[in-house]
Design a protein that fits this description.
- The chain is α+β, with helices and mostly antiparallel strands and 155 residues long.
- Helix content is 30%, strand content 31%.
- It has four helices and seven strands.
- The strands form three sheets. It has a three-stranded antiparallel β-sheet, covered by helices on one side. Strands 4-5 form a two-stranded antiparallel ribbon. Strands 6-7 form a two-stranded antiparallel sheet.
- A hairpin with a 5-residue loop joins β4 and β5.
- The radius of gyration is 24 Å and the shape is elongated.
- It starts with a strand and ends in a 10-residue tail after the last strand.
């Protein structure tokens, strides 16, 4: 059995815990006892709350930016776009999330975009460069593409 719980400390305070209970069986197979492991997860819970607050603030900032912003995975798949991206290019999240970012880059610029992404993921710090993106309506827009590598990703 695994459960998250709150336990009282001797000083009267409370502590967030992760509880693991495992049966101990005798030679005859009957449960003879139990092994309990209780792990203090107070710091983990605090950091989880802080991470959620930071992510909420980050997303709020991204939504306020009028420029089109997108975040890609290490495989080049689009993980996130802001409203500015939708306004500029006409694509909504359902149109692009999970698809390769290269699909939306002007064909003549695709090799450069792919090379830039690979170099960034290897840790290179590159100056911003121009990238042409094909909008939903077919128009080609030129924009600046800063290269920022993330240490980890979800998705």
């Amino acid at each position: 059995v695994h459960a998250e719980t709150i336990r009282a400390r001797k000083d009267g305070g409370f502590v967030d815990c992760w509880l693991t209970l495992s049966p101990i069986k005798g030679d005859d197979g009957a449960v003879a006892g139990a092994c309990a492991i209780i792990r203090d997860i107070t710091e983990y819970k605090r950091l989880s709350r802080q991470l959620l607050e930071n992510e909420t603030q980050f997303r709020g900032l991204l939504e306020q930016i009028i420029s089109g912003v997108f975040i890609v995975s290490s495989r080049g798949e689009i993980l996130y776009i802001n409203e500015g991206f939708t306004r500029l290019f006409g694509y909504g999240p359902g149109d692009v999330i999970g698809r390769s970012m290269v699909e939306f880059v002007f064909e003549a610029d695709r090799a450069h975009a792919f090379e830039t992404m690979e170099a960034t993921l290897r840790g290179a710090v590159l100056p911003a460069s121009e990238t042409r993106v094909v909008a939903r309506a077919g128009a080609v827009h030129t924009g600046m593409s800063p290269s920022i590598a993330r240490g980890s990703e979800s998705g």
